[in-house]
Amino acid sequence: MFKKIISLLLAMTMLLSFVSFAEEKIAFTDSAGRTVELPKNIERIVPTGPLAQLVLLSIAPEKFVGLSAKLDDTSRPFIEPLVEDLPFVGQLYGGKDEINLEELAKLDPQLILDVGEPKKTIKEDMDELQARLGIPCVHITMYLKDAGNTYQELGKLLGKEEKGEQLAEYLNKVYKRMQEINDKAGDNRVNMLYCLSEAGLNVTAKGSFHGELIDMVADNAAVVDNPISRGTGNEVDMEQILLWNPEVIVFETQAAYENAGKDPLWQSLDAIKNKKYMKVPVGPYNWMGFPPSVQRYLGILWLQKTLHPELADYDLKAEVQEYFKLFYDYELTDAQYDELVAYSLMK
What is the pLDDT of residues 189-240, one digit of tens each? Predict the structure, then answer.
């Protein structure tokens, strides 16, 4: 009898210790300077939107309990294996989707994570979101130039230090090589324009958040008075594009790319006449940055190899396949690579 009592007491002590450990909290200070109380062990997360979702899927897909952005036909083949049948709860911050609060409550996330460029009101926005949802909300800033640091911080926050370091090491390597190629190119940076929309009459402006990638690897021809940091870019007219007359043009859409090859106005541009135009690769997301997330490192690899093939002495296909394996745990085949870049290499 005495042994049974001792065994019962030991079991209860272990159970209480487990509960205490499971409920242990830590104080975490996010990139907005907010101190938030979080569980020490985070196992259930939801991203605020598509940018955060893409970053977090590459480091901790097993911790997701819901999606803030639906998968489309382009992203589904690459991303669906990571998320399986996770429910959609809507974009929690910065979007127009209606949040499914009932679904969110059922999922019981321990943390809502926002990753990306901080708005001026980010502190107030995160405080308001946390109060409205009743769930801890954290913002982690990420710019293209220091994405490696972001992954290290996420690794520590989510208990994924080894994966965070692995991804950070890769991103830092790509970024360093990009700088070395830029140094070799010197003043011979290619004057380039990125044209958005079906008509091709929206541009990603120099100095905008979405223009980070172009500004790093090329001379962005789209110099405007008020750069817009939105995916739609700045609207311009054909007269302005003719005045810029860039060396190279990248189109966002297939329609704009095809139209440029047959429209007389577009054909009067040097880039079109000289066959120096292409369409941005898309898979699982736009490599130039829609959303402006970590896949822009694919854009760095692709653009530098295309703009400066004599300086970028790496195998682009091998680099892209390595990226897909590291970030999406996906074995990209040669045929899939060829399809991704079918309209994206110089003619």
Answer: 999 999 999 999 999 999 998 899 999 999 999 999 998 877 789 999 999 9
d(CA 51, CA 49) in angstroms, rounded, equals 6
User: Which of left, alpha, beta for 116 (phi over 0: left; psi -120 to 50: alpha)?
Assistant: left
Q: Which of 194, 219, 209, 184 is nearest to 278 (CA)?
A: 194
- Expressed in percent and rounded to 5, the helix, strand and coil fractions of the chain are 45, 15, 40
At residue 79, φ and ψ (nearest 5 deg) are -95, -30
- Please name every residue paired with 217 in a beta bridge, in sequence order, or none if there are none: none
Token representation of residue 169: 């090491």
Name the least confident of 93-107, 193-207, 297-311.
93-107
Question: Distance between CA atoms of 341 and 318, rounded to whole angstroms?
Answer: 13
Tokens 């409920």: give the residue: 23
Find all residues with CB under 8 Å of 284, minimum gap 6, and list them: 74, 75, 77, 78, 79, 295, 328
